[in-house]
Amino acid sequence: MNYIVSLHNVNFERGGKTILQQIDWDIQKGEHWAILGLNGSGKTSLLNIISGNHFPSSGEATVLGNRFGQTNLPELRKRIGFVSSSLERFSQYFQNETVESVIVSGKYASFGLYEETEEKDWEQANQLLNDFRLSYVKGTQIHLLSEGEKRRVLIARALMSNPDMLILDEPCSGLDILSREQFLNSLEKVAINGCHIVYVTHHVEELVKEISHVLLLKEGKIIASGPKKEVLQNDLVTETYNVPVSVNWSQNRPYLIVTEEVTPSMLERQPQ
């Protein structure tokens, strides 16, 4: 299996509206991707397809060697981890659980532990706590953690099932700068362990060195895709965001600067 994801001429419609158009996108082994685009550009729909939660309206989709229409999607989903700030809406189910219990529950894709666990499960959870520099919260109920600590616990939970791909959907939303950097630093461990990252964000400065490739999406169409420094060019990013920007680089991370005053006419061109 040389391709982690392979989409060819994929279209997706919902409620009579075309959301994704003629998507051609390949993720090869060893690549870690970011998806950038405005709200309404189709990012969520694209994530739902590659995570096996939505079926394309047309076109061919193959994920982790499984071609849609010829595979068991529920089984495929077990090989894909998913972390999003929106997952915290389920925090009520974890309220009184210890950090280790939350992490171990990831192996069983459950909110709480309802199956018999094994000693090796707890050993793996302890290793993940070490990997993500969270050993100091061992035994702590998760509701007592900071937002940044909770996000790192969610990554550890997603990795309990040893997924081949980890989807991170705006994982730093709402975090302060220290918590954000602690979270981003944890991505190194994910990459080292051989799990492929697909990272969605509005903030290009979150694209740390582990993120090797970028896909720019606008109104359901791909503007550009490829190696990070080749894609994050001023003209391409300006087209994607409808705002004139300059991309600057520091320590292999990009930063955006708006290069001129944003006028009402520019704002009117943004998709609603």
Description:
With 272 residues, this protein is α/β, with parallel strands linked by helices. It folds into two domains: 1-79 and 167-176 and 195-272, Rossmann fold (3-Layer(aba) Sandwich); 86-162, no CATH class. It has eleven helices and twelve strands. The strands form three sheets. Strands 6-7-8-3-9-10 form a six-stranded mixed beta sheet, sandwiched between helices. Strands 2-1-4-5 form a four-stranded antiparallel beta sheet, with helices on one face. The model has no long low-confidence stretch (mean pLDDT 88).
Short synopsis of the structure:
InterPro entries: AAA+_ATPase, ABC_transporter-like_ATP-bd, ABC_transpr_CbiO/EcfA_su, P-loop_NTPase. By secondary structure, the protein is α/β, with parallel strands linked by helices.
| N- and C-termini, Cα separation | 39 Å
Compute the number of structural domains: 2
Numbering strands along the chain, what is their spatial order in the largest sheet?
A: 6-7-8-3-9-10
Largest sheet: 6 strands, mixed
The CATH homologous superfamily of the largest domain is called P-loop containing nucleotide triphosphate hydrolases
Oligomer: single chain
Number of strands: 12
Task: Kindly provide the name of the CATH class of the largest domain.
Answer: Alpha Beta
What is the count of helical runs? 11
Q: Please tell me the overall pLDDT.
A: 88
Q: What does the overall shape look like?
A: globular
Structural category is alpha/beta
- Provide the CATH topology of the largest domain: Rossmann fold
Range of helix content: 25-40%
